[in-house]
Every structure is written in C-alpha cells, then in structure tokens.
Amino acid sequence: MKKNKYHQKGFTLIEVMITMAISTFILGGIFLTYSNQQKTYVSSDRLAEMQQNLRSAIMIMSSEIREAGCDPTQKANAGIISATSVQLHFTRDIAGHALNKDNRADGELDDANEDITFGFSSTNDADSNGIADTGAANLGRDTGGGFQPIAENIQAIEFNYILDDGTTAPNPTASQLSEIRAVQISILARASASDPNFMNAATYTTSAGTVWGPFNDNFKRRFVVVTIQCRNLGI
User: Fold this and answer.
1) If DSSP codes are grouped into helix, strand and coil, which group holds residue 184?
2) Considering only CA atoms, which of 114, 63, 79, 95 is closest in space to residue 233?
3) Sign of torsion, CA 216 50 210 134?
4) 3-state SS class at 73
C-alpha cells in the first residue's frame, strides 16, 4: 500500500528553527572564545615586544657604560665627554691597532666603538626633552656614523648621574663630569599599536623626579629604572 506523501517522516519548521538557533548560539560561543583568545595573544605579544625592547636597550647600555673611562695605559684621557638628562657621551680605550697582537688598549680613542653616545637622535627628539616627538621612536647609539637603533618603540629616556659625594644631577656641570660614578637610566617603552579596550591614565616618575604622563590614550607601556656603576671612573 502506497504511503500518503503527507505522512512521510521529516523535520518540522519549528524543529529546523530550534536547530538553527542552537547552532547559532554554539557558533557564537566559539567565535567569542576565539576572539578573546586572539585579543589575549595580541596583548601578550605586544607586552613581550616591549619587554624585549627594554631588555635590549638595558643590556647594550649597561655593558658599554660600565666601561666608560676605561684607560689602561693612562694615555687616552678616556671618560665622560658630555652628560645631560637626554644623552650620554663617553669614551673608552678598549682596542688597539693591527700591530697590537692582543688587540688591547693602545692609548688612543680612534678605534671602533671607543667613542659612544646614547639617546634619541635630534630627528626623533628635536626639542631635546627626552621624549620622542612622534610618541615613540628608536633609541639610538652613535659611534661616529650617526645614531643606529638599539631598541624600538621607546617613548622617553632620562639619564641621571650619581656623583662621588652621593648626590645626583640630571644635568651635571662641566666641573662635575669627573665626579660621575654611576648612571641611573629611566626608560619608558610603548606598545607598537593601541588597544581600544585599554585606557592608560598612569604616570611614571623617573629617578630624577620627572613625571611622564598621564597620556590618557590606548597604548600600554612598560617603565624601568636601572643603575649602572661606572667601574672605571674615579680610579
């Protein structure tokens, strides 16, 4: 006996609508989970990037500033050339000419990496206030051929100098240059991109008491202050 076509088994419209609603709910949950995980990943990646930028800057500056004034022969007159809150310029005698088989100090300061300046270039900090003009820029190292980047996305830097008597001076006088024994460096790194779900209203106080911020924007930041002992100064 032939079945009536109106009595064949299938899904009703209500069942289809319920199934679609459940599927939409499940897909929405999956998308929300993925979206949150993606945001967390991007945020973590930017934080790691800032940490790496700070680590790079600190490692390079610490290694070389410790050798400021290195002058084994006592003939090179190595030391602090100029010291301001935004740039540090110093020399060190660490290498010799080709005839010096051990490539040790030769009493001169004309070899590579013996004359160094740290800070922002004038292009990135035209008003010399230690804050990048465009919000963030490359922190640089100049050995005579112009500033080369040692860290990206640095918003601000400040040098503060500890003198022989224990006092500090962010802008020591010419007569105080020979009294510098350590350098305190405050560095503020900024994320490479803004986060619309974040508002930065924090302030950052440098070792010299300068307050950076609040910036009241959507950029995350990382701030660090390090003290570097100049082991060759004052000997």
Assistant:
1) strand
2) 79
3) negative
4) coil
